[in-house]
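Shipment paperwork, digital attachment
Item: protein structure file
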Amino acid sequence: MKTLIYAVVTASILALPVAAFAQSSNEPLTRAQVKAQLVQLEKAGYNPSSANDATYPAEIQAAEARVAAQQQATQSYGPGMNGSAQSGQLAAPAMAPANSGQ
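Attachment content:
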């Protein structure tokens, strides 16, 4: 029983650095990254100069949602889904040219 406990403790200690490394993406943004994000928000319809206190959170959150949707659309894999595929129907057989009596 003691060896099982030691094995679990050892495994958890060895796994801690991996978990800590996976969460280390909280680095501060550079000035250029912040400016690029602001440009993206402005292209999505957010105008920081016309924001007032009553509509500020809703306006920027809506712009952030539009930017996230655009980024997700550009990062998706596979063909676009336009609804042009049909399923469950047999293809019509090709008509053979009529024999001219030969």
